[in-house]
Specification:
mainly alpha; single chain; elongated; 5 helices; about 75% helix
Length: about 100
């Protein structure tokens, strides 16, 4: 028996589904990079067009939100606060 065969028996046969939140965060990161690029080139139209994608980003399904918030437990209020600040900052940046 190889090491890989031995390990395969201890790992679930079906990979777990990636969290929707991961994709949302990746998209937000890409949108932030677009905004930084727009600012550096003084392309204010691009910045204004992109900020709503961050301010109004999609939310994961309730089941996933509960799972994530239970995982971060005592820091859930901080997480929610950061999300609110992100929204407010993106709106303010778009208006500026």
């Amino acid at each position: 028996m190889t090491c890989n065969q031995a390990h395969a028996g201890t790992v679930s046969e079906q990979p777990s589904e990636p969290l929707v939140l991961k994709k949302i965060m990746q998209d937000m990161g890409e949108n932030m990079q677009v905004i930084v690029d727009g600012i550096s080139r003084e392309d204010w139209e691009l910045v204004e067009k992109t900020t709503p994608l961050i301010a109004n980003h999609p939310q994961p399904l309730m089941e996933e939100r509960v799972k994530v918030l239970s995982f971060i437990n005592k820091d859930a209020s901080k997480f929610k606060s950061y999300d609110g600040k992100t929204h407010e900052s993106a709106v303010a940046l778009g208006e500026a």
